[in-house]
Design brief:
Blueprint (H helix, E strand, L loop, with lengths): L1 H17 L27 H11 L14 E7 L12 H10 L1 E7 L2 H10 L5 E4 L1 H7 L8 H6 L4 H9 L15 E2 L1 E2 L7 E6 H6 L8 H14 L11 H9 L12 E4 L4 E4 L4 H15 L12 H10 L4 E5 L2 H9 L8 E3 L12 E2 L9 E4 L6 H10 L3 H9 L6 E3 L5 E3 L1 H4 L9 H9 L9 E2 L2 H10 L5 H12 L3 E2 L9 H18 L3 H5 L8 H10 L2 H14 L1
Parallel strand pairs: 1-2, 1-3, 5-15, 11-16
Antiparallel strand pairs: 3-12, 4-12, 6-9, 6-10, 7-8, 13-14
Length: 550
């Protein structure tokens, strides 16, 4: 346990020194930007969705929470370049008015958060992912959420806990160490290939049905536009592997482990022969001048700039991004059109992709165990799951930015929204940032697609391209609904962490060698053997054993 913590902390502090003075201004890759289609893949039963609708029908019913004394709550957040977080935005002002709790944000990147966790130097509340919750929860640095649920002190969260069985998978040894974000009426999409459909049509290139045909199509466009970088991405090599490996017949997950829906089990992707096919395909694309030569250092800004300017023609990532890129592209190329295509067939004869999670998107908020008056803080966190808390944190201020309809449902006010028409990167991101709302701000029952759809339709941005996009995704039977990883014991979590740390260090030094052709692809067999020796299959076995107990 100590070995992995010291190794991780040393690497983090080393990175922080290199970028000293910049930790408060995260790069665009510090958080995955959302889009109108950035959360998807409902994995819960219809009863959970129905219960959410019943809760929403309560309209303006208030929860009754209000702190006896004015309280300032510091909340650590990472920030998306698409949706900057503002201090004391209207939603936070309204929260303060309703609850007597003033939110002050501490903004940083993932490295800063890791340092805060590893040194137990936390603000009152910190946004974390599932792996951090499992790693640090048992150390006692967070408030035990399960205790509050069992004591009946968090009735709003308890309602979701009872309705959503997968929330139990967030526990460690039966304890929930953070408040999971619950998605509010999300639409389903995922990673997919988005390309310049107008250029294919212009140059009589058929829509690719296989990944080989996709590569050939990009080669043709490279010949026609020799100064282009046909295929680009964001956040470097590991994100590229995360977004494309499953489609190509293997998988990567967050750090190599993924659930294979065809095999019905967990697999450590980079330690399998199928992963050679992924690297081999990327090598072909790189050698042909199709893959961006700077693929290893791309950022969110790289992807946005190159797709919106026409320098690149393909990305394989959150497919919803294409709609915003098209709007910018059409300012200089009125005929430009970025559109998703059905998932192509890979070299193993498979068509496969994974939707986003639409009920538990993965984020959570942990409360510092040393925070002042934790009972009040936990009551406030529970209020954030209420109808009132969710409406404010997703719509802003009643009478200013939203109003209720006859059924008690919130809707944006058009006059307010129209102020942001044609804003970059989109109207809805501008609204979200200005109000301080939705999934990328501080919200526990959080909207994203529901609110973006309403805004896009309100300002007239919902067009045939958008309708076409959603119809393509909905009709594509290559997509599967994601499962949520099983809960691990603290002992298993620590073992996985130790093994993963060493494997990640070794493997991340290898990927680019094979993609760039520095090493012949057949030599990757040695990497597979070394990964197995270092415990790759043990990690998969731990997860498969835990999954069998669910």
């Amino acid at each position: 346990m100590m070995k992995s913590k010291l190794k991780a902390l040393a690497g983090i502090i080393g990175a922080a020194i290199l970028v000293s003075g910049c930790s408060g201004t995260p790069s665009s890759s510090s958080a995955a930007p959302a889009s109108p289609a950035s959360s998807a893949g409902g994995s819960e039963s219809s009863s959970a969705a129905a219960s959410q609708s019943e809760s929403q029908a309560s309209g303006t019913e208030e929860s009754g929470f209000r702190a006896e004394k004015e309280r300032t709550l510091t909340v650590f957040m990472t920030e998306s370049s698409n949706q900057p977080i503002k201090d004391f935005a209207p939603a936070q002002q309204e929260i303060f008015k309703k609850t007597n709790v003033k939110i002050e944000f501490e903004i940083g990147n993932s490295d800063k958060r890791s340092i805060l966790l590893a040194t137990n130097n936390l603000p009152d509340v910190v946004s974390i992912d599932t792996s951090s919750m499992r790693e640090y929860g048992p150390t006692g640095i967070f408030v035990n959420v399960t205790d509050y649920l069992n004591q009946g002190k968090m009735p709003n969260l308890k309602k979701f806990y009872d309705e959503i069985p997968n929330m139990k998978k967030r526990e460690v040894d039966g304890i929930l160490w953070a408040c999971p974000m619950v998605a509010r009426n999300e639409a389903a999409n995922g990673f997919g290939p988005v390309l310049r459909a107008d250029l294919l049509e212009k140059h009589n290139i058929p829509t690719p049905q296989t990944f080989d045909e996709l590569l050939e199509a990009m080669k043709k466009l490279k010949e026609i536009y020799p100064d282009s970088k046909p295929w680009t991405g964001r956040k470097g090599t590991t994100n590229m592997l995360k977004t494309i490996s499953y489609m190509l017949g293997s998988g990567y997950g967050g750090n190599g482990l993924y659930y294979d829906y065809d095999l019905q089990k967990y697999v450590f992707g980079p330690a399998t022969p199928e992963f050679k096919a992924v690297l081999g395909y990327l090598n072909q694309a790189y050698a042909a001048g199709v893959l961006d030569p700077d693929f290893a250092t791309t950022t969110g800004d790289t992807l946005s700039a190159q797709m919106s300017s026409g320098q690149s023609f393909l990305f394989i990532d959150n497919s919803g991004f294409g709609q915003n890129y098209t709007k910018t592209l059409r300012k200089t190329d009125p005929e430009g059109k970025l559109q998703i295509i059905p998932i192509p067939e890979n070299s193993f004869g498979q068509r496969r992709a994974i939707l986003y999670e639409t009920v538990l998107p993965g984020g959570a908020y942990a409360v510092n165990a040393k925070t002042k008056d934790p009972d009040t803080v936990m009551s406030f966190m529970d209020w954030m799951y209420s109808q009132e808390g969710s409406d404010i944190s997703n719509y802003g201020v009643e009478g200013m930015s939203f109003e209720y309809d006859a059924d008690g449902q919130p809707h944006f006010i058009q006059d307010y929204i129209m102020q942001f028409k044609d804003a970059e990167p989109s109207t809805y991101y501008a609204v979200y940032s200005e109000l301080g709302i939705t999934k990328l701000n501080f919200s526990l029952w959080a909207a994203n697609t529901m609110t973006s759809f309403e805004i896009e339709k309100m300002v007239g941005n919902w067009d045939d391209l958008t309708d076409e996009y959603w119809k393509i995704v909905e009709a594509d039977d290559a997509y599967v609904t994601p499962i949520i990883d099983p809960s691990l014991s603290s002992e298993d979590s620590e073992r996985v962490k130790d093994l993963t740390a060493d494997l990640t260090t070794m493997l991340e030094q290898e990927y680019n060698k094979y993609i760039m052709g520095i090493e012949p692809i057949d030599n990757y067999d040695k990497v597979i053997a070394k990964a197995i020796e270092m415990g790759a299959e043990e990690i998969a076995n731990i997860y498969n054993t835990a999954n069998g107990k669910v």
